[in-house]
C-alpha cells in the first residue's frame, strides 16, 4: 500500500477547481463592469443632452409652423384689393386725392 504525502480526497480537489472557476468568473465580471460603467455613464449624459436639444428643436419647429401659417394667411389676404388698400393707407400713410386726413395724436401718459 503506497500512500502519497500530498494526496487529497477527490472532493477537496473538485472544490478547489470550483473556487478557481468562481474567482475567474468574478474577475471577468469586475473587468467587464470596469469597462462598461464609464461607457454607460458617458452615453447616458450624451442621451440627456440630445434629448434636451431635440426638445428645443421641436419647440422651434412649432414656432416656425405657426409663423408659416400666419404667412400663408397674409398671402391669401393680399389677394383682396380692400386689404391691400388698407395696408397702403396704414403702413405707407397714403391717402386718396381730396381726402381730409385727421391724424390721431397719442395721449400723454
TrEMBL record:
Entry-linked Pfam families: DivIC
Recorded coiled-coil stretches: 47-81
Keyword Ligase (UniProt): no
Annotated keywords: Coiled coil
Keyword RNA-binding: no
PANTHER family found in the cross-reference section: CELL DIVISION PROTEIN DIVIC (PTHR40027:SF1)
Protein name: Septum formation initiator family protein
Species assigned in the record: Paenibacillus chartarius
